[in-house]
Amino acid sequence: MQGMRKLLLPLMAIATLLVTACSSIEPWVKPYEREHLADPIMAIDPDPVSSSYMDHVFEVREGAAGATGGAGGGCGCS
Amino acid sequence: MKITLKRGLAALLLVLGAGAAQAGVLAEDRADIMYHRYQGGGITVQGPSVLVRKKFGESFAATANYYVDNISSASIDVVVSGASRYSERREQKSLSLEYLRGKTTYSASYITSQENDYKADTYSLSVSQDMFGDLTTVSFGYSQGKDHIGSSVDPTFADTIDRRDYRVGLTQVLTRNLLASLNFETITEQGYLQNPYRFIRFVNGPGSYARGQEVAPHTRTSNAGSIRLKYYLPWRAALDGQYRFYTDTWGINAHTAGLEYTQPMWNRFVFTGSYRYYTQTGTNFFMDLYPRPNYQNFMTRDKENSALSTQTVGLGVAYDFPLGFASSFVKRGTANLQYHRLFVDYSDFRDLRNFPPGTAEPGTEPLYTLSANVIQFFVSFWY
Which terminus of chain B has fewer CB atoms gathered within 10 Å of its CB, N or C? Predict the structure, then answer.
């Protein structure tokens, strides 16, 4: 539970910041300034078929799972 | 000898993750055809994975995936149990539907995985919302799944696992060169959470040991939180750093850290290099050798429940190939080769392959280590 609380606090702080700043926020990176972010090399998950395969390789051999950005599923994977 | 009751997150529907950065516009149509091969620790797992994604108008999209693991295994668990190499096949199919309305993307998905002694079905729902001039994407997801477990050595054995999975994600544009992504996930499981093919060992006399059945709790809850930063470097390259913390009610605490560098070259090539480090404590009821039978309520010698660390080094290359006559119906095509070398060091799981009972003082056998080669070859088309 200690660990969970440690993780939740920063998330809640960010969420609160976002909500309170909601009415007055101005996008500080304008649409015409997003050329670099739009480059395919900056994609968060450029190849889902490959990243989900590697997630599977690790999940079978390690105790931890989750928070990789993918949807959960279940398998009796060897 | 078939299954590992690993809480596998099949994670083949990456709607939440893949869509998160682009909510407001549905991702492009694409198709991927992959061959994957894992070889190490006496196990070879190889097979295809095919993913097809198609938009219908500007508001609807469907993604389907077909994935196969062809397994040939003489792993340490198989060898030590005295069984011979076995082969089996696992098939996984998934379908995901997305609906975009304004800045909100709704998705629903279904995954089914089947092998001769194990079946798993999972239903997922998720929502992602773009806000603050598209600098921020927030997403929520829920999955519910049920596994049906059998045994190839005991036809009368049948049990189940119920699984629930809650996810929250945030993708944030921080500067014109920096993206951040935060994810949090809670998984609860209830049911038969041990492995019918794995055994504990206990001391049964001076210098000798015997095997017994493992006993695991019937519930498990885990929490994982991750942060990821991706930075665009001035010479057109990308640096990606990740950290994840994981903790669960069985006593596993794990840290994962990773770094990936992406470098485009010569117009048509993109090279990647990566390093990942993972470390975990063991479950608090794990022991390599119990002092006697029925030593405690819960007992396991599953190596994934031992303290361990993993190191992975990866190299990849993608080639954007000329389309020729196909350019009238395909926008872009790439051929990709990725290689990962994986090393696992177990801190509390001993290698008994050459030490049957009576041949060495129990508890003095060498610790087990594993190395593996992981290869992926895939072609991707955007149309």
Answer: C
Structural domain includes residue A74: no
Residue-level pLDDT, tens digit, chain A, 78 residues: 555 566 667 667 766 666 665 555 677 888 888 889 999 999 989 999 999 999 999 999 999 998 887 644 444 443
Summarised one tens digit per residue, pLDDT across range B227-238 is 999 999 999 999
Count the Cβ atoms, other than its own, within 10 Å of residue B371.
13
Residue A67 lies in a domain: no
Q: Is A13 on the interface with B (CB under 8 A)?
A: no
* Residue A52 CB contacts under 8 Å (≥ 6 apart), including other chains: A70, B10, B11, B12, B14
Alpha-carbon distance values, B93 to B11, B30, B36, B81, B144 (Å): 11, 17, 16, 32, 16
Q: Residue B306: CB partners within 8 Å, gap ≥ 6?
A: B282, B286, B288, B346, B347, B348, B349
pLDDT of residue A18: 62
Distance between CA atoms of B237 and B216, rounded to whole angstroms?
47
What are the sequence ranges of the domains in chain B? 15-382
Distance CA B43, CA B52 (A): 29
Q: Are A68 and B285 in contact (CB under 8 A)?
A: no
Residues lower than pLDDT 50 in chain B = 1-23
pTM: 0.87
A6 in contact with B, Cβ within 8 Å: yes
Range of the domain at A44: 2-56
CATH T-level topology, domain B15-382: Porin (2.40.160)
**Element holding B259 (H helix, E strand):** strand B253-265
B116 C-beta neighbours (distance < 10 Å), count: 12
Q: How many domains does chain A have?
A: 1
Chain B contact present for A17, CB below 8 A? no
Length of chain A: 78
The pLDDT value given to residue A73: 42
- Residue B304 to residue A70, Cβ atoms within 8 A: no
